[in-house]
Amino acid sequence: MAWLYLFIAGLFEIGWAIGLKYTQGFTRLMPTVLTLASMAVSLGLLGLALKSLPVGTAYAVWTGIGTVGTAILGIVLLGEPATALRLACIGLIVAGIVGLKLVA
Hints:
This protein has 104 residues and is mainly α. It is 84% helix and 0% strand. It has one domain.
């Protein structure tokens, strides 16, 4: 169950990272409220996952999910460049996440 909590926490991390862009410096109410709610859910689920997962592994996987998801959504939603090197680096992060899951 801890890995499921961690995965969902990572998805909410993506939500708040992308949400920050839409708050326009916390000047727009609804994006700000949704971003803050995503932050709270993400941290709450990370805390639940940490009850049984090693902190180093859980934190690395959580941030990895957030990093990969945010980078991909930045490409898809925000028109950020999708260069071969950038995609290769995202692939390395995914490989690291999988590796940490396998050894935990």
